[in-house]
Amino acid sequence: MDETVAEYIRRTVLKIPRDEIKTVLQKWGFLSETQLQTVNFHQIKDNISQEVVQLCEENSAGIKQAAVLDIIYNHIYQNKKIWSVYQMRKTGEELEYFDLTDFKKKFKRRLQSALKNVTITFREYEDNAIWIRVAWGTPHRQPNQYKPSYVVYHSQTPYAFISASVLKSNLPLLCQALTVASNYHDIREMELRSHSLNSLKDIVFNRYSQNFQTYCPKPLQEKAVEPESEDLRISNENRREKERIQRLNQEAFGDGPQPILQFAQYKLETMFKSNPKMDVLDKKQPFRCLVKFSSPHLLESLKSLAPAGMADAPLSPLLTCIPQKARNYFRIREKKGVFPESFVSP
Amino acid sequence: ESGDPQRTALLLRKAWTLYSVTPLYRFCRGRLRDYARLLSAFIAAERQKGLAVEVGVELDIKVALSILPELQGSEQDQPAVLVQLSSRSRASSKNSEDKILWSGCFCCVYGDDLSENMPEDFTCLPLFLANGAESYMSVVGNWFQKTFDCIFRRLAISPFNLSWMVAMWVGCKVDKAASAMELVFSVPRLPQPLDISYAIHPEDARALWDTIQKTPGEITQEEVDVFMDCLYSHFHRHFKIRLSATKLVKISTAIASAHCDGIVKMLHSQYLSGVLMLLTELAISQIQ
């Protein structure tokens, strides 16, 4: 077995949490159950990976099998990467029958004709998801297995999710191969990025529920009996305000769980407007700002701002529109015309 | 040992952790070599005890103390004292250069408030900047505390002071292209924490400040408040979020950046003194 392959397998196994190694190897299926029985999965990872490499040696593992192991690892730990969303367009409206073999052939051919040295691996998953791993080389160098690009393409949709590879120069070629292979004619990058692949899918496939169009929530009922407080007026007002905020939040964000995004970025090119009483800046040029919101779960975080008293309800549409518009990168300019307070986002 | 102007450049572009230091008792500027030797022995002893150990490499740690006379404000200020820990790996050849492991700098820029009525035996160097591994800071700090009967305390920077810094520095002219003015806010007590970075084009930030500041060279509390309110209301107009209800944790300008945990980075030699003056003031407030 090639020593570079051995090293690659060793390092891939080391990335896996110790308690999961056996499961991942079973999913891989390259080593038999008998072989796996011989490995002591309770020793330190260094030793486990050495034993695994030994077994792979016995089975003469090559780069193809190693690449499959890597795809499996990245499918399980997909949230370690940042995924960007791409949307493809085709001229006609015909729904063509998707031929997986044809897709793979065309994809490989497009890449291999441009770059002699590439390692291309496919793996199909449920939900019509095709995972593609591409390791990039040059006409004179073997592919770099440690910096591959990953594409997740859902064949029944025009969407593909690409993990931002360090080697950005290969991105156009990757997009081209994808478009050609799937019989589309155009591809564009959406302004939408997240660690959570499933949440991105929820957003573009409209699988989350933001606004209940058909379902009418029961009107909030005034409680007939007032529990503790003597001063009924004060409790009532507070409660009313809290209910108002909750209702507006619900309208804006919906009832269901929010898709998981980690950031939103706004490039502001709007005018600075001050309180007329303050004798400050009144330029005719935009006040240029860059605002970035970050959180482990951005939308939940934003949703909690108004109830916490840190924001007005309703929250700005610039924030609540994120799932609907399927984007978390925005450029906001002043809208010219009647209502200078409104903004456009190109 | 006196330094040269080049040496103040070593303060630039490094992240310094700030401490306030109470006056040092019987610290003598003439005995720096002695102190270096004593500190060196102390460090060696601590390392033998198993503290302040750098894993792996065998290191000889060299201690150097020197004066930085350029770093003082008024006549009454004590000149700054620089402490450097450097290493030369025992394995490497004699010609290899020493690597600086850790630096610390005692300074006082316009610290008259503190030094004014100080008895003779005491040396006022209220501001301490540290760069390098925490373990070294711990050892060096302990030695100074024991030897000169002083107390080191981490210097936090409040949102109030951060606002002052941003107002003071946004108006400073820099010759080369300035970096954006950035404010970072944190909202930790939500179910999911939120961080907000609000960066403004340096020209636009400066233009706003220029219309607010009435007298060049002077800044009033009211002007700082108006400046921050303007920025907050511009933000609110777009996002309906009240930044004033969140915690300002970090500010960045072309001159310097500062974090509420008491970490600063100074970026411009021309304004070094001004920044240190402000930090000296904060250190003195913490001591008094």
Tell me the layout of helices and strands.
The complex is a heterodimer of chains A (346) and B (288).
Chain A: H1 3-15, H2 21-28, H3 33-37, H4 45-58, H5 63-76, E1 83-89, H6 100-114, E2 118-125, E3 129-138, E4 141-154, E5 159-163, H7 171-181, E6 186-194, H8 197-204, H9 232-253, E7 263-270, E8 287-294, H10 298-303, H11 317-320, H12 322-325, E9 329-334, E10 343-344
Parallel strand pairs in A: 7-9
Antiparallel strand pairs in A: 1-5, 1-6, 2-3, 3-4, 4-5, 7-8, 9-10
Chain B: H1 5-8, E1 15-21, E2 24-25, H2 32-49, E3 59-68, E4 80-89, E5 99-107, H3 112-115, E6 122-123, E7 127-132, H4 134-148, E8 152-154, H5 159-170, E9 181-187, E10 194-200, H6 202-212, H7 221-239, E11 247-252, E12 256-259, E13 263-266, H8 272-287
Antiparallel strand pairs in B: 1-7, 1-8, 1-13, 2-6, 3-4, 4-5, 5-7, 9-10, 9-11, 11-12, 12-13
Brief summary:
Chain A has 346 residues and is of the alpha+beta class.
Describe this protein with a few key phrases.
heterodimer; A: 346 residues; alpha+beta; Double Stranded RNA Binding Domain; Ubiquitin-like (UB roll); six-stranded antiparallel β-sheet; four-stranded mixed β-sheet; 22% strand; globular; B: 288 residues; two-stranded antiparallel sheet
Radius of gyration of chain B: 21 Å
Overall number of domains of chain A: 3
Q: Mean pLDDT of chain B, rounded to whole units?
A: 88
- Strand elements of chain B, count: 13
Biggest interface in this structure?
A: A-B, 44 and 34 residues
Instruction: Give the ordered list of helices and strands of chain A.
Output: HHHHHEHEEEEHEHHEEHHHEE
Q: Outline the biggest β-sheet of chain B.
A: 11 strands, antiparallel
Cα(first) to Cα(last) distance of chain A is 54 Å
Helix content of chain B: 25-40%
> What is the percentage of strand-forming residues of chain B?
25-35%
Radius of gyration of chain A using CA atoms only: 26 Å
Distance between the termini of chain B: 31 Å
CATH first level of the largest domain in chain A: Alpha Beta
Structurally, the number of domains of chain B stands at 2
| Overall geometry of chain B | globular
Subcellular location (chain B): Chromosome, Centromere; Nucleus
Family (chain B): Belongs to the CENP-L/IML3 family.
InterPro entries (chain B): CENP-L
Protein name (chain B): Centromere protein L
